[in-house]
Amino acid sequence: MKKLLSCATVLLVFMFFALPAPIFAQEEGDVVTMEEVVVTATKTKEKRKDIPNAVIIMDEIDIQESPANSLGELLANELGIDWRTYGNYGGAAQEIHIRGMGGDATQVFVNGVSVNSPSLGIADVAKIPLNSIERIEVVKGSGSLLYGSGAMGGTVNIITKRPKRDKMDLKASAGYGSQDTYQLSAEQGMFLFGDFGYYLTAGRRETDGFRDNSDFTHNDVSLKLVYDKGDILDISLYGDYLDREYGRPGVEPPPGTQDYYIGGVKFYSSDAASVLDNGSDDDAHVVLQLKSNPSEWLSLNFRGDYTYMENYNHNRYHSSGTGGKTWTTNEVTGIEGNIEIKPFEGANFLLGAEYKDYDWKNENVDLDTNGAEVAGTRSKTKADLHTKGVFAEIQYRPCKYFKALAGIRHEDHSTFGYEDLPRFGLIINPLKSTVLKFSRGKHFKAPTPNDLFWPYEDWGWGMGTEGNPNLKPETGWHTDATAEQTFFDEKVFITLSCFKWNIDDKISWVPDSNFFYRPQNLDTYEADGWELGTKIGPFYNLILALSYTNTDAEETKKGGARRQARYIPDDQFKGSLTYWTELGLNATATVRYLGKRPGIYDNDTDINPSRTLASYWTTDIKIGQRLYNHWILTLTGNNLFDKGYETYVQTFYDYTSTATLCPYPGAGRSVFFSVGYEF
């Protein structure tokens, strides 16, 4: 609480110095940073200055200029966002953590449809190809009012590309780089005739990875069809499909570890805890959206969607040579409709309803010491869930100086019952270039099908896993205050946010004395902190962006200790500098700093970690040169100074059952060169 009060003091000081801003203010009619339109925050088109939350907006140019190779790396350079992977190898899932919350506390949407795995609650943002993205909107703070379960730390909405009138888009690129990595991508879009158009994208990426068993192959394709009659009617049908195959090397064994074989088959090496474990993903989405704005006071929106996700995992245990195969399949059918009414000047009413049906299937089979399926061990488990949500929100701006917002969602879940989720917001505009925002909302996360229904699985010696159908949802509140200020004709933008959140009944998979894991509602999490960011430019063909985030996150173990939450750093710093010339040269350099954070506590009663992950810096750069208007040569370097760092830690057991705590290492230096063509 002291930190939140001190942050509020800083916010007031910030506002005091911002008051002279009119001497730098834009002329009437100029477009400023706070005039950007955002849809994700309220499901209605609102200017940035009319949204009570802190937001991040990125367009196609921002994406093209970044040295990032994936959506996770791209967002990792933004204020208040932490990017996590289990080792940063090719097939490692990439999670987005906002303000210290877990990956399952952020809902990621593509064209309004959640791409979070229903089984895990986490979105693997590495699956979303960058070349298909037109715009990204990140809204921090509780989003459960509009988006239901999991929107606790914030929401990320990806809007994919659509055709442009009177223009044909055609782009293709090919590249090759470190670790025998190559990538191909192509996209093409246009209006075929009248009001009907399409946009098609496709891509392929392969890499050997920087460790044993970290090879990776990714293929994706997407198609968006549109029928655009303007405000009267806009219909879009979007579909995508991807398949990924990857090795899963696990942790890096301790120094001196020798290759280990069973029956002539290598099980682990000095570089990887497993050289046999692997997995694959097959994902598909279909989204139908209808929008109509028949009058100034009425807007209608409808969406129907279908999601298919299949995850396959192949595991071999070097303790015995045996193993198992597991297939987890999720099918989600959803429908949502909302209506926006503007009865009089300054007032907006949003009413909506949403229904989702989840089909979850789990199939597994045991493997013998030769890796062959054991007859009679194949088992199948399936479960059905459904949720119903009804929400209402009212916004009212009586004058140009302030605006208020309030709403509530009633969510019914077929397993645990219901939750009521209120949210409140206030926006104060003392000057045209100054905004003060306040937001407070209740959030929740439902237990996943894996949490509820995972079948009994015995690994031997009493070890194994099993779901718990008696779990309760995680709940809590998220409160934040934000100040935003522009200077010098929008060329300087400054934002400062203070936040506080808590989570009760945190779901944790915990072992008993025999290491048999079951999920339980055990822990309490809470955090407060502040974020400061600025974007300066363009000045002299330069744009500079700097940001700092401070987070004090604590976990309270049931009957145990109150301590710093695992893997959440106190400090994060990001910076980027972009330079361009009239001759087609463009260069961007980014740096990221992540402070030290606790890795492992030996017992629930410990307040000091037995392993702390060290702080680290990484530096990336991207240089592009346009030739003859259509050709683009690009050179990208990641982790240029080859800084070693750890992402997570886990216990490694060698063939003698000796336990050693070992890291998931981050990727070292890599370079990538590509040639692209745009028409």
The CATH fourth-level homologous superfamily: TonB-dependent receptor, beta-barrel domain
Q: Which secondary-structure class do the elements indicate?
A: mainly beta
Average pLDDT taken over every residue = 90
CATH architect. name? Beta Barrel
Outline the low-pLDDT stretches. 8-32
Please describe the biggest sheet, giving its number of strands, its sense, and whether it closes into a barrel: 22 strands, antiparallel, barrel
Quaternary organization: single chain
Q: Report the sheet-strand fraction.
A: over 45%
Q: Any idea what the radius of gyration is?
A: 25 Å
Highest CATH level, the class: Mainly Beta
Number of domains: 1
Question: Count the strands?
Answer: 40
State the end-to-end CA separation. Answer: 55 Å
CATH topology, anyone? Maltoporin, Chain A
Q: Tell me, what's the shape?
A: globular
Tally the helices: what do you get?
A: 5
How would you explain this protein's 3D organization?
By secondary structure, this protein is mainly β. The chain has one domain: Beta Barrel (Maltoporin, Chain A). The chain contains 5 helices and 40 strands. The chain starts with a helix and ends with a strand. The model is unreliable at 8-32 (pLDDT under 50).
Keywords:
single chain; 679 residues; mainly beta; Maltoporin, Chain A; 22-stranded antiparallel β-barrel; 40 strands; globular
Question: What is the compact description of this entry?
Answer:
This protein is mostly beta strands. Helices cover 6% and strands 59% of the residues. It has a single domain (2-678), classed as TonB-dependent receptor, beta-barrel domain (Maltoporin, Chain A, Beta Barrel), CATH 2.40.170.
